[in-house]
Every structure is written in C-alpha cells, then in structure tokens.
Design goal:
The structure holds two protein chains of two kinds.
Chain A: H1 2-16, E1 17-18, E2 26-34, H2 36-39, E3 42-43, E4 49-50, E5 56-59, E6 69-72, E7 76-77, H3 83-92, E8 95-103, H4 109-112, H5 116-122, E9 128-132, H6 135-139, H7 144-160, E10 164-168, H8 177-197, E11 200-202, H9 204-208, H10 212-215, H11 225-239, E12 248-249, H12 251-257
Chain B: H1 2-21, E1 25-37, E2 40-49, E3 52-53, E4 57-62, E5 65-73, E6 79-87, E7 90-97, E8 108-113, E9 117-124, E10 130-136, E11 143-150, E12 153-154, E13 158-159, E14 168-175, E15 181-190, E16 194-201, H2 208-215, E17 235-238, E18 249-251
Antiparallel strand pairs in B: 1-2, 1-17, 1-18, 2-3, 2-4, 5-6, 6-7, 7-8, 9-10, 10-11, 11-12, 11-13, 14-15, 15-16
Classes of the chains: A alpha/beta, B mainly beta.
Chain lengths: 258, 252
Amino acid sequence: MRRYIISLLALAFGCLSVPAWSVSPEPFHLVTYGDSITAGVFRTGSGVVTCPQGVSREPGRFDDEDTREVCYGNGAVNKGGYQPKLFSLLMDDGYAPSISNYGYSGIRSDQMVPFVLSIISQRPSATHYLIMAGANDAANDVSTSTLIANLSAMVSQVQAQGLTPVISTVTRNFIKSAFDVKTGQYSQAIRSYAQANDILLVDSNAALGPNWGNLHSGDGLHLNGQGNDILSSVIHSSLNLKVRNGLVISPILHLLLD
Amino acid sequence: MNVLRFIVFTFCCLIFFSSASAKKTNCSVNYVSAEYAKKQSSIAFWSYVDSELSDKKLVYQTEHHISQIRSSVDEDFRPLIVWVERSGKNDRILSTNLNLTGNWSEPLLVEHSKSELSSPSLIRAPDGTSYLSWASDEGGSDDVYLSQFSKGKWSQPKTVNEKNSVPDILPALSIERDGSVRLAWRTFAKPSIGYEDRFEEVTQALSESEKQQLQSWQCKYEKSSIIQPETNEPLFINYYQDAFYSFEKTRF
C-alpha cells in the first residue's frame, strides 16, 4: 500500500512539474513611455546624437525652439537604451517579454498626458506601463506640483483601464546646476506620490545618481551603456514579477499554490 | 589775443565735457549667467558691443540658490535682470538694473512665495514698460501672474488666468507684428486632451507712425559673428532677432 501511494505521488509530481523547455513562457508586455531617456538617445558632449537600432531618427517636434534630429521610439518592440537588457532579464525569469518603446525626445509631462489612451489602444496586450517623465520639465522650469499633477493624470488613465502603472524618479542632469536641483526636487515628490498612492516605483535617481558622472553619455543628461544596464536592472527589480525560470511550474500546481 | 585764447579754450572745454557726459547708446548683445560656488550663487553679466566682449561684471551674489535668470533692458535702455531665488522652501523673484552711476541697483522684490515660482518670461514693450510673467503654485496648482516695471518700480502682481484648480503653466510674453505685447500659456483641460493654449493681449497694437518710429531702433546681428563668453553655466542671451522689431540698444 505504501509503495502504491509513493508511486502515485511520484506520478503526480511528474505530471505537475515539467522541464522549462516543454512549457511556453508566460507573455509579459510592458509599455515604456517617456522622453529621450526612454527612447534611448545617446548624445555626446559635443552634441552628436545616436539613436539605438530600431528607434527612429526624426526632426524634433516637442520643443518649438529645437528642431534638430532626435530619437522617437514610436512603439518599437524590445529596442532602445535599457529595453534590450531588460528584455534579457525578463527572458531569464522565464517570461516571453515584449517591451514597447514610446520614448519621444524633448517631450514634457504636460505633452505626454493626451497620448496615454492612444498608446493603450495600440498595445492591447500590455499589462504594465512604465511612465518616466521630468527631464524636459526641469529644462523648462515646470513646477514640481505640475509634474506630479501630470503624472497623476497619466497614472489614473492607466488604472482606469485595469492596467498597472509604474512610475520613475528623474535621472540627474549635469547640463545646468539648476536643472540638477530640479530633478532632485521632482524625485523627492515622485517618491512621496508613489508611496501615498501605492504605485510601483523605479527609483532611477537614487540608483544612478551617486555615480552619475560615469553613467551619462557625455552631455550630462542621457545614459551611456553602463547607465542603461543599471537602469534596466532597477526597472527589472521594481516590476516585482514572480521568477519563473528553472523548473517551470505547471498551471495546475500554480493554482494550488496561489 | 588773451581774450581770444580764453574763448577758444572755453569752447573746447564745453565740447569735451558735453561729449564725455552724453551716455552712449549702442547696439549690444547682453549675456547673463548664473555662477555657482560652494555656498554661493552669483549673477555675471557681459555686453558685446562693436565686436568687443566686455569683461565679466558681477551683478549680484547670495548664499541662496539662483535660477531662471532673464534679461532685458528698461525704458532707458539700461540692462534689467530678473531671477528666481530659493531659500529653504521660500521662493522670491528679484530684479536689478544698471543705474545712471553705472552700478547695479539693490535687488527689488517682485514676488515672494512659500511655494514654487517658476517659468519667468520678461519682455520690453515698445513704450519702454517691461512686463514679467511667471507661474506660482501658491494656490495648490500653478497660476499665471503678470507684473510691469516702469520708473524703477514693479506693479502689484495680478493673476492672469481664471480661478481654477488645474495647472496654468509656461507663460511666454512676445511682441506681435502689430507691436502689441501678447501673453501665451497652457492650461489643463482634461486627460484625453491634455493642455490647451491660452492667449491674452497685454498692450494695444501700435499705430503706423509708432511702428515707423520703432524701426529706427533696430539692431541687426549675425549669429555667427557673436562671441560667447566663457562660463561654466549656460547663458541667457538677450537679443531679439525674430520679433517685429529687434533691438538691443543699451546704455552703459
């Protein structure tokens, strides 16, 4: 009888647990929405702009005074500055990730607000929305309260669709001291807002700030390769997803365990 | 003979002193920059006249943080500088201008707030009055304010937008082709639309004769010929190239 029970249990375990290669990874679709840092712009100290592979290079349209060629994500999948590395990290976790790049160089938070619903309709399978704004607000002297109001408007739109918003603090800016002070003020307010409203937070300012001198592309604002790697790791940990690598748990056991 | 020499000498002295006391009004590009050192912020000023860049002049110094510097000229064509100064959680908008003695005046208070003052926009109207607009979130969300500078004084700030609970942001003053001063800003409409643009006429259009009088003030610049002074912070460059009339006649 004992042998019979043990055999039954072994058979059940064998059915309920299967090797990773035989089960399709769970899809995970993330939209990344923001400015040139989201787009993945690399700009040197002398102003030469390089766009990541797969990200469009177009004349700027969000700053009336600056129409130089810049980078627009336009929804490119798994392309950008930090997006490729984040894709790998999520793959390692056992997911089938799809990361849409809606980064637009020069865009401020007030300009971002009206496009949220349009992006949601373009990506119906996306469940998480990472909103990263503030760099251009700092350069345009936008107040902290207005930035938070704009973030709140975007977060509300995402939540109203039953989706998960994720917000980020603002990375540092060495172009001008006043801008850098502003990013610090913004980041403090964003942390408070995220905590008060129980919103997932990517604290990119804290993660990159102390070593910012070595992590920007040369212009004091955009990220270099190392900076993007760190940012992808911070985002990855902030998403707080279940790790699904190694022995993939079948749906039935997942149900029993949850 | 002695009388004749005396007359000639007196005449020469009169010519010399009258030319020395007359203030030169030249076309100038004015540069203003913030400079930061440990526990100190300062404002630096340069002028660029007849292809010569002046030495750096220290305008103002403080232990507080200075930002958002704007520059123009007052009704007498003397440089006028405005900035935001933060001390703790208090913001102030201050101004100074170059007076008759060639010194920068003691800072004048335009506005103070326990909230954030942001996005100042400064312009000189054709009649010489200077207008300053900014945003303040004293009321919980940003509102747009306007004040004018004339005869050495700023007027009491007045709210421009209607009373509301949404952000009114990024005020921008400009001179229209008819010579009037216009204020534009953005106001939050609703999430699906975002912000809408708003405009207000601050001054009236000019008559044809007034426009013709203005054209005699024009200064023309070629950007490529301008030399920028060295500074560790970006500059605010004060010249108007695309406005109805471009001028920067400055008195020093």
